[in-house]
Design brief:
The structure is a homodimer of 327-residue chains. Chain A has 327 residues and is mostly helical. Chain A has 16 helices and 2 strands. A two-stranded antiparallel sheet of chain A has the order 1-2.
């Protein structure tokens, strides 16, 4: 059923994805060779293009009929790629989308400056919309995202992280970009404020659910599917909802067992499996799935007042898919 | 005479500098402790506040009478500080304004994310102006600056760097921020296009001259005055105008002598002095001074059509000071 849903969505958005790919490459030219190569390393490594796609679809749902949607949509992929370039350096990751991270293929300076360039490119395209509200949205996204990343960095290894603090981190680092993409789609279509707010909320809930699903995958997927090692968050000292929830209700002995793994970045497969067992035992996996599902329900609920348009159905399918995706 | 000019300027802008300081601190609150500390490390380390001051003065010259100028002016100090945080990492510098660089006091991730945050903060304040032209200006600045930094990184150690390529690097990395600050001052004052362009040009020429003077100081100043070691650019493999000019007209023997120093980042004081002798011998120092002086003349020339206002005189004094400053 998951494969069926994915195929159905991909078939429906095939043309949009092609237009987005063309703009992603086109907007980078003509630029220096080095920038194109480093940006291309992260941009053309099999990303799903979910964020630009959301902008294009939300614009369409609000009646957009121009031909600049794919161009404007690249803003959200550039911002996303910029964040990934800086994050990989911050996290000390080695793999991203099955490839060696840019700051190891090249070096930290090149990764930092290319990230800066992609962010700047996104802002310039935002300025091209000529819509102050869009620009305010993008400025707000960049501010929130950097705050979220800093907060996450500060909280690394902090075993007292609460569910509320976790939610604030994922809102800043993930949901604001989703909601900004959806909001911008509505804005470029000249939608009335109530629709702008609705699509903003759709993106917010979808983004939270998407990040929760991502955090779950870190405990349930292997290298082949994710393009990075399972347990990567844990190895970096990042507490996510499955663990936060399990820690909040575990026995003292199991708590110590989980914290011992968290505190040892060189944990082995056995120790990792033992921790995942604890997450299952205390409902950390199930609770995170439930919370993600609740946000997907909320995302779909705000779409109901929109006309029964094929694009509305597609946005609902995307929401469902965010929950069941395997990569 | 230099000291006299500096004192005269400082006396005239004392109130403006105080307003700018208040806004620089105020706009960072309420933010996380870590951000405030890292941002404060670079922001409150004795910077001259030249960029925000230029915005305030250009706004005044164009008749601005509101009370938001100092707030908007912080954009240019935040952008500047963001660039410095990333640059120090890129350059592997150890000292900045007489202090250990942020990425060594903290670490690379913290410096990168705080830089991102300051850039984002600047954009949010730009969005607050509600003026699309200002936002376009800021977006253009960030794009140009990151391009300039990348180009400089690519060209490190490239002994074939031409004067034209050098000019393009310093335009992107320095002059666009100066011209953006001056342009924004005119825009927030609602100045007519001809004045916006004139002040844009003033900032452009001032920025080029300022960077040339800075590049000269790298060969003529010591640690005590600059807060960093003389020869720092050279040690990083950065060719600047004094050396580019000297290389273009030196004997083969002297060329080899200069290149030997450039290729050895561990050069000693004697070798550095030998290289400076070559720069003098082939007119590299004098030529750079002449070029900087020509840009200062050009900067002052575009101010002439403005009314004979004390602020016009002040902007002319600032231009003169850029050329003779010792730090």
């Amino acid at each position: 059923m998951t494969v069926g849903l994915k195929q159905k969505i991909l078939a429906a958005v095939q043309d949009d994805l092609q237009r987005i790919e063309r703009e992603l490459a086109g907007n980078l030219n003509p630029h220096f060779d080095l920038v194109s190569r480093v940006a291309g390393h992260i941009l053309f490594a099999g990303g799903k293009r979910l964020r630009p796609l959301l902008m294009v679809l939300c614009a369409r749902l609000c009646g957009y009929s121009g031909d600049r949607d794919a161009r404007f949509a690249t803003i959200f992929e550039y911002l996303h790629a910029a964040t990934l370039l800086h994050d990989d350096l911050v996290d000390g990751s080695e793999m991203r989308r099955g490839k060696t991270v840019a700051n190891q293929v090249w070096d930290n300076p090149t990764a930092v400056l290319t990230g800066d360039f992609l962010l700047a490119r996104g802002l310039s395209i935002a300025a091209d919309t000529g819509l102050c509200e869009v620009i305010e949205t993008i400025a707000g996204i960049t501010e929130n995202m950097s705050q979220g990343e800093i907060r996450q960095l500060e909280k690394k290894g902090d075993i007292t992280l609460t569910e509320e603090e976790y939610l604030e981190v994922i809102r800043c680092k993930t949901a604001v970009l989703f909601q900004g993409a959806c909001r911008t789609g509505a804005l470029v279509a000249g939608a009335e404020p109530i629709r702008v707010t609705a699509l903003n909320d759709y993106g917010h809930h979808l983004g939270l659910a998407f990040q929760m699903a991502d955090d779950l995958l870190d405990y349930t997927q292997d290298l082949a599917t994710m393009g990075k090692h399972a347990g990567a968050d844990l190895r970096e000292g990042k507490l996510t909802l499955p663990l936060i929830h399990a820690l909040s209700r575990s026995s003292d002995a199991d708590r110590e067992r989980m914290l011992a793994v968290l505190k040892n970045p060189d944990f082995g497969a056995d120790e990792f499996e033992g921790l995942v067992d604890c997450l299952e035992k205390y409902g950390g996996i199930a609770y995170t799935r439930e919370q993600a599902a609740a946000h997907i329900q909320a995302a779909k609920a705000v779409l109901r007042p929109f006309d029964n348009h094929p694009t509305r159905k597609l946005l609902m399918d995307i929401a469902d898919y965010a929950l069941v995706r395997k990569a």
